[in-house]
Amino acid sequence: MSVAPTSDLSIAPHVRRRKSSSDSFRGGSPLIYGIALVVVAVTLGPVIYGVLGGFRTNAQLAATPAGLPSPWVLDNYLGVLANPAFWQYTWNSVAVAMITTAAVVVFGTMAAYPLARYEFKGREALYMVFVLGLLFPAAVAIVPLFILITQNFGLGNTWLGVALPQAAFALPTTVIILRPFLMAIPKELEEAALLDGASRIGFFWRILLPLSGPGMVTVGVLAFVGSWNAYLLPLLLLQGENKTLPLGVADFSSEHSSDTAGVFAFTTLAMIPALIFFLAMQKRIVNGLQGAVKG
Amino acid sequence: MADGARARRARNASPATSSRHAAGSAFALPAAPVRGGRRGAGPIRRKGPDRRKALEIAVFVTPALVLFFLFVVWPILTAIQLSMYKWKGFGPLTNFVGIDNYTAVLSNPYFIEAVGHNFIVVIMSVVIQLPLGLGIALLLNRKMWGQGLLRTIIFVPYVLAEVIAGVVWAQLLLPKYGMVDALLKSVGLTPPEQGFLGDPSIAMGTVIAVLTWKYLGLAVILFLAGLQGVPDELYEAAQLDGASWWQVQRNITIPLLGPTLRTWAFLSMIGALQLFDMVWILTGGGPANATTTMATFLISQGTKASNFGIAGAASVILFVIALVMAVFYQVFILRRDVQPDNDRKNRKKVKR
Question: What's the start-to-end Cα distance of chain A, in Å?
Fold first, then answer.
């Protein structure tokens, strides 16, 4: 990876041919591929080990912890799939995440609209309220939240009791991401709509909402991921049959601590569907995070 | 108010084109450009649309604000209130103790240790992930085979729930039967007797290693995204000038990546101060309180021991620490971004 003239030597020939000569810095060399491979192995290793571990028996795992399944056993996975608690946890996770996402997208978009496109006194102050919300770590509010939700709001051990605070804590990011997005929609569209006799509400419904689809998907995905992975708030608020998957995984792993293969199977089934969905949405997540970063 | 005045001025200036002017100068104005213009200007007449606008704003913003106040602001105020009472979780708040809870928390060696652990995580996250993440991002920021797949793979640990990652790692790190021990033995090393999470002297290091695994991908992805903002022309120009790969990174890429790095570090810091899930799953704060954090401290105090006053005081202290660090960071580090960034944009424009 050295000086320009010599670096040409280190660049794989087939890569070089495909590219214009100007960016010869940017080809891959064997060293780069080697490093990439190490990164991939370290990153995926534990995940793949968990998946494979689910196909082994506890005896196999104890005899050769670092071995491959031989023979492959399906019992662990079948056992989890036949476990009604697993499906209950999954259903709860889906429900809580859907409520959180709906609340964030609907209320977040509504709040971002006037902040982006109305001019009024106190607009920036109102925006600052949401920005400051970013500075409140959720951990600070967690114990009083637990008390308020169980004692004052009567929402203890309900989906809503978890979803609404999660939505509230996701609102600052949502507003911060959506506002510039809504601001970027050209003024001419709004002027045209108003000249044609649409009200601002009509403009919001018929023009702004359809155009802000991508932004709403981004904030929705971020809220969904956050809710799906959340642990602390559900841990305090949900019991028994209302538990979500992270709680279920943690419970299962401590209750069946001797059944390592079962724990691997349970964990794998809990993570794989979400993992596929989240990776498919990767671009949205990264865009959202960048949007939040840039403000 | 100001907009109204501006619009009126525009209307008075040239009545014929008034509506277009007003709409152009303040696009988000009420119906003033069209309706107000037709009716003729006048502060009294404008009240209708103004009130309507205010009503619209209220309708749009209220649900979010209500949610925000109920579930963010109120709990934090409650934390402050609780912190001044001795309260076991039921009955009225009567036993006012002033700042006793704060002195109790601040003189509690376990809490002080927990704060120390949080700071270790804050510092080690940046010290480890910044060079590693930057190195990986710089190396991967080139067209190469499997680039998209690679980026997706790097993102995997980040989108996993901390709990799930924690459970898998806890299994991997089991003493004797875990994969890590097996691998170490196979290359002739002796793993620690009580396991990586059971030995107080290395438990914290182990937690940090797992956190690095979990969050390095986020750093790499954000850095890579930042790198895409560096214009190709700069690389070309530097290359024509005979700069080496390292010189280009050192003098062009890393400085231009500055804002991304600083904001990432900020996010990482706020996250590290709130660390809970991973610790709770991996060690529960043990062994011998070697891995407690402020969050695990206040959860044990609040929900296990029902010392809500102590938990409230610990929450407020956590909040103050986070706030002070955020403000310092804002003032001393992020502020830099404002000035140089503008310079840079101008420079870029000149280049083109």
Answer: 35
Q: For the segment B119-165, what is each residue's pLDDT rounded down to a tens digit?
A: 999 999 999 999 999 988 888 887 777 788 888 888 899 989 999 99
- Who has greater pLDDT, B343 or B152? B152
- Under DSSP, the state recorded for B33 is I
Segment B192-205 mean pLDDT: 89
| All residues at 6 or more sequence positions from A201 whose CB lies less than 8 Å from its CB, including other chains | B56
Looking at the structure, do residues B287 and B336 belong to the same domain, yes or no?
A: yes
Q: Where are the domains of chain A?
A: 4-78, 84-294
One domain, residues B60 and B192? no
Greater confidence (A25 vs A58) lies with A58
Altogether, the residues listed in chain B come to a count of 352
Helix (H, G, I), strand (E, B) or coil at B89: coil
- Residue A128's Cβ-side half-sphere holds a number of Cα atoms within 13 Å equal to 4
Q: A143: helix, coil or strand?
A: helix
Mutate which: B159, B249, B319, vs A, most A CBs within 10 A: B159
Interface mutation vs chain A, best among B72, B134, B155, B197, most A CBs within 10 Å: B72
* Structure confidence at residue A118 (pLDDT): 86
The reply to whether residue B244 touches residue A4, judged by beta carbons under 8 angstroms, is yes
Q: What is the pLDDT of residues B61-103, one digit of tens each?
A: 999 999 999 999 999 899 899 899 888 877 777 888 888 899 9
User: If you measure CA to CA, which chain B residue comes closest to A148?
Assistant: B75
The Cα A169–Cα A161 span in angstroms is 13
Last residue of some domain: B67, B82, B113? B67
Sign of CA dihedral A89, A91, A93, A99: negative
Superfamily for A84-294? MetI-like (1.10.3720.10)
Q: Kindly identify which residue of chain A lies nearest to residue B263, measuring between CA atoms.
A: A293
Mention every residue, 6+ apart, whose C-beta is less than 8 A from residue B216: B129, B132, B133, B136, B154, B157
Are residues A269 and A77 in contact, defined by beta-carbon separation less than 8 angstroms? yes
Q: From chain A, pick out residues whose CB is under 8 angstroms from the CB of B321.
A: none
User: What is the total count of domains within chain B?
Assistant: 2
The SS3 assignment for B85 reads strand
Whether residue B212 is found in the same domain as residue B311? yes
**Same domain for B105 and B63:** no
Phi-psi region of B40 (alpha: psi -120 to 50; beta: other; left: phi over 0): left
* Residue B221, helix vs strand vs coil: helix
Cα torsion angle, B31, B36, B39, B45, sign: positive
Q: Average pLDDT in the B263-285 region?
A: 91
Q: Are B206 and B286 in contact (CB under 8 A)?
A: no
Quick one: CA dihedral B213, B214, B217, B218, positive or negative?
negative
- DSSP calls for A179-231: HHHHHTS-HHHHHHHHHTT--HHHHIIIIIHHHTHHHHHHHHHHHHHHHHH--
- Rounded distance, CA A257 to CA A252, Å? 8
Q: Which residues lie below 8 Å from residue B226, measured CB to CB, with a gap of 6+?
A: B257, B259, B260, B261
Based on the fold, state whether residues B204 and B298 are members of the same structural domain. yes
Residues A259, A260, A264, A270, Cα dihedral to 10°: 50
Instruction: Write down the mean pLDDT value for chain B.
Output: 80
Report the C-alpha dihedral over residues A195, A199, A201, A204, rounded to 10 degrees: -10
